[in-house]
Design goal:
It contains 11 helices and 14 strands. The chain has 402 residues and is of the alpha+beta class.
């Protein structure tokens, strides 16, 4: 017995020092492996931390990349910084003006360029929370994709009336409208929501209001019309399906898992409150046309873009299905440059400088999230001016890739 004990003590005395030596070597070995495989490993930023790389480390010409940033700053949107004034002026021809949701004064031009998951360039205050207008629509369509993934919507070609039975889809025309039509803005839904009639949004300049009220309705799916009333109808319809506020769904299923900050807010209107299962909930807006929409930082928008760059996967978690990413990029027949509330670069119509596969979230005032899977690139920009400015920035960023 004593002999066995002595052998055990001798083994322990020999093995423990060796064990700790191995422990001390292991992290070094892993570190060396990680460094050697850096370009092959998919990087995802942790919450509150986002690693940067020098331009030359990721294949950029530093001077040319600086020229792209200088171009963005020099071409900042010239609209009023008071965004209530800006939207009132921009939509002054509409019969139902004024804001229904919150607005705020905007910040200066800012942006972030992400290559291979790393920040390669940044300018301005990218942590500032600002209105992002119709970029909100891409967040909204994401909640539709999540509903499809969860089985709450069986098929995008289902009539919405099968899910929302409160009269909004009861007419002969509206009964034909599917989720697909709402998502690609070809529904031509007729009605009023939150005191805004569908015909009052971006009315044709050569028609009287009386003519617009009596207009002939287009068969759903045949005519594209960018229309915030109908976008807000999608948000309302999704709220009926989820029966939980959409910002809660987005936070739990997307924004928290990708490490977004807690500073973003998704607003509706003062009159867009509804009662669901005995609880009062706000139906959010899909843009800032009448105020409201997503208020968010550029950094958080870049994280959102990175999720879509990675086909819905974040650090080996599939947060939204690859099938949904494929669906949202299908060109709408009535407008090949539009998918499920993301703008497409079909035939390079949106940007002659970018690959045709690029897709973007775009909002009033020069708010952009550009997703370029071919070049493993995300560009998130605020107050960058017109579409021509966006194309100029993309052109210069891609030219800087050596």
């Amino acid at each position: 017995m004593n002999t066995h004990k002595n052998k055990t003590l001798k083994f322990t005395a020999y093995f423990y020092p060796l064990f700790f030596v191995l422990l001390s070597i292991l992290p070094i070995t892993q570190s060396l492996h990680a460094d050697g495989a850096e370009q092959k490993t998919t990087y995802f930023p942790k919450r509150g931390v986002w690693e940067k790389r020098k331009p030359e480390q990721l294949g950029f010409n530093p001077q040319m990349l600086k020229e792209a940033i200088d171009f963005a700053v020099a071409n900042e949107w010239t609209g009023p910084k008071d965004l209530e004034i800006a939207v009132t002026q921009a939509f002054s021809v509409e019969p139902y003006g004024g804001v229904l949701g919150p607005t705020k004064e905007r910040g200066e031009s800012n942006g972030i360029i992400v290559k291979n998951g790393y920040i390669v360039a940044e300018w301005g205050d990218t942590k500032r929370v600002d209105m992002t207008f119709s970029v909100s629509k891409s967040f909204l369509s994401t909640t539709a994709g999540l509903a499809l993934d969860a089985g709450l919507i069986a098929d995008v070609n289902d009539p919405v009336k099968d899910y929302v039975a409160d009269g909004k889809f009861d007419s002969e025309h509206n009964a034909k409208i599917t989720w697909h039509h709402l998502l690609n803005q070809t529904s031509d839904w007729s009605g009023t929501l939150w005191d805004r009639p569908d015909w009052g949004d971006r009315p044709s300049g050569d028609a009287t209001w009386s003519d617009l009220r009596k207009r002939k309705l287009n068969e759903p799916g045949t005519h594209f019309k960018y229309n915030d009333v109908r976008v807000n109808l999608l948000a309302y319809s999704l709220l009926q399906v989820w029966r939980i506020p959409l910002p809660v769904i987005l936070r739990e299923k997307i924004m928290d898992p990708i490490g977004a900050s807690p500073t973003w807010r998704w607003h509706g209107y003062e009159n867009s409150w509804v009662l669901i299962d005995g609880l009062k909930m706000q139906s959010v807006s899909g843009g800032g046309h009448w105020g409201g929409g997503m208020f968010i930082s550029t950094r958080d928008q870049a994280r959102f873009g990175l999720l879509f760059l990675r086909n819905g996967n974040w650090n080996d978690r599939q947060l939204i299905s690859k099938e949904w990413i494929k669906m949202l990029r299908e060109p709408t027949q009535a407008n090949p440059s539009y998918g499920y509330m993301w703008w497409l670069n079909t035939d390079q119509q949106l940007s002659s400088s970018a690959p045709e596969s690029v897709f973007s979230a775009i909002g009033f005032g020069g708010n952009y999230i550009v997703v370029d899977q071919e070049n493993d690139l995300v560009i998130a920009m605020r107050w960058a001016g017109s579409g021509r400015t966006m194309d100029g920035i993309i052109q210069r960023v891609l030219a800087a890739l050596e």
